[in-house]
Amino acid sequence: MKIKQRLRFWLGSLTGQIILVALCALALVQLVSLQIYRLEREEALGLVNSRFTLQRLMAVTRLLHQSPPELQQEVLRASRSETLLLSLSRQPPEDGERNPVFERIVRNRLGYPAPLAIHINAETGRGHALPPLSESRQRRPHHQHGTDIRLYGGIELDKGVWLHFTSLVDAENTGWSLRAILSLGLLAALLTGLMIWLLQRITRPLKQLARRAEQLGRGDKAEPLAETGPSEIRDTLSAFNRMQERLDRFVTDRTRMLAAISHDLRTPLTSLQLRCEFLPEGEDKHKLQQGLKRMEQMLNATLRFARDDGQDEPMRDLDLSSLVQSLCDDLQDAGHKVILEEREPILFHGRSQALRRALQNLLENGIKYGNRVEVRLLDEPGHIRILIRDFGPGIAEDQLEEVFKPFTRLDSARNLEDGSIGLGLAIARTLIHQHGGELHLSNHSRGGLLATVLLPH
C-alpha cells in the first residue's frame, strides 16, 4: 500500500511527471536511433558484401578458366564459404530481375568475351527484387535459417558449363544486447539524477509557497518569501508577497475602522442615556432605556471582538485536549452538565486564547439552549474533529447558516434579557477560520444541535 501511495504521489507531482516524460522520450529516441542504425548498417554491409562477392566471383572464374576440368570441383570446394555458395551445372540460371550494372562490371574486369553470358541478380537485405518463392527454391542452394541473400545468378564457362553462385549474409541479432540495455540504464539513471536535482531546485520555492499559503490561511503571519528561482517562479513569489501584504493591510484597516466606529458611538450613546434619565416615568422611558441598553451591549461586544481580532497572539504548539478539558471543568464547576469523552493528548499549532474563546462560545451556546452538552475530540488523518452536541430544540435547516451572521437571533425565546446579541457564533467561526479550520452546524439525528469544528493538522 505504501509503495502504491508513493508511486501515486510521484506520478502526481511535477517532478515525477517530467521525469516520466523524459524517460519515455529517451526510450523513444533510443529505439528510433537503433532502427536508423540498423537500416544504415544493413545498407553498408550489403554494399561491402556485394563488392567482396564480385571480387571473389571473378577470382574463381579466372581459376576455373585456367584449371583442367578434373580439378574444377576441387577449386570450387576450396573457394566456397559460409557466405558464398558455388556449384557447376550445364543448366543456365532461370531468368529473373537481372542487374545490368553488376553484369557490366564483371564482364569489363574479366575481359569476358561477348559470346559467354553473365546472369547476375541483386536484391537488398529487405527482399527487394526477389523472384517468386517457387523459382527461388529451384535455383538457389539450400541455406541455413536466419541468412539473407544478396547476389545470385550464373557465369557461363567454356563448353556450356555454368558457374552458379549465391551470396549470403549472416543474420545478426538486431535486438537489445546486454551491453545496450546496461548503457541505456546508465544513461537513464544519470538523466533521472540530473533532472531530480534540477527539478528539486526549481520546485523548492513552490513548496515553500504552498507552506506559506497554508500558514497564511491559518492567520500565522510570517516574513515575506525569498524571491529566488527562475523568472516565472520569482514573479509568482513576488505576487504572493504583495497579496500577503495587502491582505494584512486590509484586515488591519477593517479592524481599526470597526473599533473606531464603535468607540465614537459611545459618546452620543452616553448623552442619550443621560437625557433619558430626565424623562418622566412611564412606558416610553422604559422602552428607551431598554433600547439604549441593547445598543450599549452591542457596542461593547463589537469593541471586544475588534480588540480580540486585532491581537497579535503568537502561534504555538498546545495540547488541545487539555484546553477543552479546562473549559469543560469551568462549566462543570459552575453547575452545568458538560460531558467530555476521555481522550489522549492532541497537539495543535495555533493561538490558545483565540481557540479558547471560540470553543467557549460554542459550549456556552449549547448550555444556554440545550441544558446539557457532550463533547468529543477525534484525531483523524489530516485534521482534528471536535464535536459539541447539545440537547435543545435544534435549528431549522434553512437557518443553519443564518445564525453565523452578526447580530442574528432566531426566536423570541432567546430574548433581550439574557444578554445575548447574536455575535457568539459569528466570533467563533471567525476565530476558527483564522486557524484554517471550518465550523458547521447540523441537527443531530437523535435531537439537539451538533457543532462540528475541523482544524487542520
Overall description:
The chain is 55% helix and 16% strand. The chain has 11 helices and 11 strands. Strand 8 (372-380) and strand 9 (383-390) form a beta hairpin. Mean pLDDT is 78; it is low at 126-147 and 412-418.
Name the features.
about 450 residues; rod-shaped; 11 helices; four-stranded antiparallel sheet; five-stranded mixed sheet; alpha+beta; 11 strands
Walk me through the topology.
Blueprint: H1 2-12, H2 14-66, H3 69-79, E1 84-89, H4 100-110, E2 118-122, H5 133-139, E3 148-156, E4 162-169, H6 178-217, H7 231-277, H8 283-309, E5 316-319, H9 320-333, E6 337-340, E7 347-350, H10 352-370, E8 372-380, E9 383-390, H11 424-434, E10 438-443, E11 449-456
Parallel strand pairs: 6-8
Antiparallel strand pairs: 1-4, 2-3, 3-4, 5-7, 8-9, 9-11, 10-11
User: Which stretches are low in confidence, meaning pLDDT under 50 for 5 or more residues running?
Assistant: 126-147, 412-418
The share of residues in extended strands comes to 15-25%
Count up the helices: 11
Helix content: 40-55%
Structural class: alpha+beta
Q: What's the main sheet like? A: 5 strands, mixed
Query: Alpha-carbon distance between the termini?
Result: 23 Å
Give the strand line-up of the largest sheet: 6-8-9-11-10
* DSSP strand tally: 11
Question: Secondary-structure element order, as H and E?
Answer: HHHEHEHEEHHHEHEEHEEHEE
pLDDT averaged residue by residue: 78
- Kindly provide the radius of gyration, computed on alpha-carbon positions and rounded to a whole number of angstroms: 47 Å
Q: Give the overall shape.
A: rod-shaped
